[in-house]
Design a protein that fits this description.
With 67 residues, this protein is mostly beta strands. Helices cover 12% and strands 37% of the residues. The strands form 2 sheets. The protein has a 3-stranded antiparallel beta sheet with strand order 3-4-5, with no helix packed on it. Strands 1-2 form a two-stranded antiparallel sheet.
Amino acid sequence: MEIKTKFNLGDKVWTISQCKAAQFTIGFIGVYDGVIVYGSDKYNLIPESECFATKDKLLKYVAGDGD
């Protein structure tokens, strides 16, 4: 089975962390219960649906204007 991810190892992405926009570099990609997750390591995992290529795309998502 082949799994396609939105981002790759080494990509920098934006998410919400501690109620603030935060950027991190993907150092880990995993699949848990069919959900792709990213993290800077294997202990801090964020679902793919909560990761964005740019800060602007993250802010639009938070504002309800799509992803």
